[in-house]
Amino acid sequence: MAVHPLRLSRFNVTSLVLGLAFLYLPIVILVIYSFNASRLVTVWGGWSTRWYTEFFNDRAMLDAAWMSLRVGVVSATLATLLGTLAAIALTRGTGFRGRMLMSGMLYAPLVMPEVITGLSLLLLFVALDAGRGFVTVTIAHTTLTMCFVAVVVQSRLAGIDRSLEEAAMDLGRDPLRAFIAVTLPLIWPAIAAGWMLAFTLSLDDLVIASFTTGPGSATLPIRIYSEVRLGVKPEINAICTLIVGFIAVVIVLASLVSKLSSARGESAAPL
């Protein structure tokens, strides 16, 4: 039987175009106006890169960006480590008591409003008399993103045949070395995807960081929000354009790595 190619109707094409425009047109406008020479964001004054220069000369904004990068890298790494261990425990430890309770507590931040999470962490840090800063924000972001990593890794572990690891143990490997030699390479793409998701969520967070940050440790979203309340400056458009460009480069590199891994016959998680 002949297979007819899928034909897009005019309605489908229109819906697709409107949907893409709704998603990406504001970003395109933001990128264009980041090169606006005028100080007024609603008035076009010609092409210029002066606002990028202003950003790299703004010490407070650079410190906030560096703070966000440090918090993102550290919290994403900790969340990946803890989330992977939690996913292994939930997938392999089907017999221990309290598994359902642990699973519910682990996945609670997925459905809990960020305001409640941020307020509860703030009360915890106040009760412990902990000075709010880099450490408290990192702990808060690790708590927030660990559950996302656990979901990604657990879904990958559920699709792996346990007999492969058992065969390695039959050949003389102990359980730890069998896991490292067989299972870890199979779930590595999922771990990398979980790290990227955790890092992105950390960079994007505003609510929880506003509860757990302190003087001199403001992240970039908090700094941008404080600036926007006084009026949108073209410098903020330049900052957002740099972030969009950075994320686009990371996505392209991740997609290339995923395709190269698939071409070599490795089990890669789609990104």
From TrEMBL:
GO term, biological process aspect, one: transmembrane transport
Cited InterPro entries: Bact_Polyamine_Transport (IPR051789), MetI-like (IPR000515), MetI-like_sf (IPR035906)
Domain ABC transmembrane type-1: 65-257
Key words of the record: Cell membrane, Membrane, Transmembrane, Transmembrane helix, Transport
Localization terms from the record: Cell membrane
PROSITE patterns from the UniProt entry: ABC_TM1
Record's bilayer topology term: Multi-pass membrane protein
Annotated Gene3D superfamilies: MetI-like
Residue ranges crossing the lipid bilayer per the database entry: 12-35, 71-93, 105-128, 134-157, 178-198, 236-257
One GO cellular component term noted in the UniProt record for this chain: plasma membrane
Keyword Transport annotated: yes
Chief location: membrane
CDD domains from the UniProt entry: TM_PBP2 (cd06261)
Keyword field contains Transmembrane: yes
Family named by the database record: Belongs to the binding-protein-dependent transport system permease family. CysTW subfamily.
The protein's name: Spermidine/putrescine ABC transporter permease
